[in-house]
Design a protein that fits this description.
about 25% strand; three-stranded antiparallel sheet; about 70 residues
């Protein structure tokens, strides 16, 4: 049982999706590469934020992710 990446993109979109996933009661792990890049002296990239959920929760969050993708 591990984590599954469900999103990689801009910080604004990641935060919006995170809220939708957490609204159905699923915890989200956020990896923010913007902060890492800034601390390392690099510029940020468009795929700077990644969201992960437990693999066992994926079937629960998949409809939310699909709906989100259709709306962007």
């Amino acid at each position: 049982m591990g984590l599954m990446k469900v999103f990689s993109g801009s910080e604004i979109l990641a935060m919006a999706l995170q809220q939708k996933i957490e609204a159905i009661g699923v915890n989200v792990v956020v990896k923010n590469n913007i902060q890492s890049a800034r601390l390392g002296g690099f510029g940020n990239s468009d795929l700077a934020v990644e969201l992960f959920v437990q693999e066992t929760e994926f079937s629960k969050v998949n409809p939310v992710i699909e709906e989100f993708r259709m709306s962007i």
